[in-house]
Amino acid sequence: MDKLVKIQAPIKMLLNPIHLFSFGFGSGLVPRIPGTMGTLIGVLLFIILPNMDWKLYLTIIICAFLGGIFCCEYTAKSLNVHDHSSIVWDEIVGYFVTMFMVPKDWLWILIGFILFRVFDIFKPWPISVIDSHVKGGFGIMLDDFIAAFFSLAIIQTVIYFL
Fold first, then answer.
1. Contact yes or no for 88/68 (Cβ under 8 A)
2. Is residue 4 part of a domain?
3. pTM of the complete model
4. Contact at 8 Å (CB) between 11 and 79?
């Protein structure tokens, strides 16, 4: 994310369905904590999704990721900023990835939220490299995907040993 950009995205952009998705249904327009708000939308969507076969859930993740590449790039170009803080579709999809094959239990939901936010905020290697070098919609989506994969790996390791 471009750290120097503090310009708030215009709320009227929500009238465009592509921007509506990119902005996490408006959650990304919340000042100061748009990424956290976007992740909370991911949590809410995860909770209300019916239990489903892992193949269907994975299909949803893949479609949301691929659609996110297009939507996030479109919105970034409209704002003329690579990864504007208001673009939070990547956080929503990232949370879905974090929770792949994780029980729908409040403890795991909270652990997934915390782990994903920590990796997304602090961006350890290689997330930081991806974030600064891979541009466009793919770059916007990819760094959060890797943060989510790290979070998922930790959760699955803990579940395995419990």
1. no
2. no
3. 0.94
4. no
Domain range spanning residue 96?
11-161
Residue 58 lies in a domain: yes
pLDDT, tens digit (0-9, with 9 covering 90-100), for 22-39: 999 999 999 899 999 999
Bond prior to 10 in cis (omega within 30° of 0): no
Residue 155 within any structural domain of the chain: yes
User: Smallest Cα–Cα separation from 21: which of 146, 117, 140, 120?
Assistant: 140
Ordered DSSP codes for 73-126 = HHHHHHHT-TT-TT--HHHHHHHHHHTTT----HHHHHHHHHHHHHHHHH--TT
Instruction: Return the residue matching tokens 């949301």.
Output: 64
- Rounded mean pLDDT of the chain? 94
Residue of 7, 38, 12 whose CA lies nearest to 23: 38
Our count of domains for the chain comes to 1
Is residue 51 domain-resident? yes
Sole residue written with tokens 């990304």: 28
**Nearest one of 18, 150, 110, 20 to 142, comparing CA atoms:** 150
CA dist 55 and 150 (Å) reads 20
Confidence of residue 148 (pLDDT cuts 50, 70, 90): very high
